[in-house]
Amino acid sequence: MNDQQQGWAIVVHGGVGASMDYQDGCEHAARRALERLDEGAEAVDAAVSAVVCMEEDGRFNAGKGAALSLDGATVEMDASIMDTRGRLGAVACVRNVKNPVLLARSVADTPHCMLAGEGCERLARALGLSAHPGPGARQLEDHRKMLQALSGAMPAMPGVGNREFARFWNYNTPLDLPLGAACDTVGAVVRDSEGHFGVAGSTGGSAPSLLGRVGDTPIVGAGFYAGPAGAVAATGIGEQIIRHLLARTVYQWLADGVPLQQALQRGVDLVDRKFALGLIAVSRLEAGSCSNRPMPHAAMSER
Question: Considering 104, 220, 262, 268, which has the largest number of Cβ atoms within 10 A of its Cβ?
Answer without folding.
Answer: 104
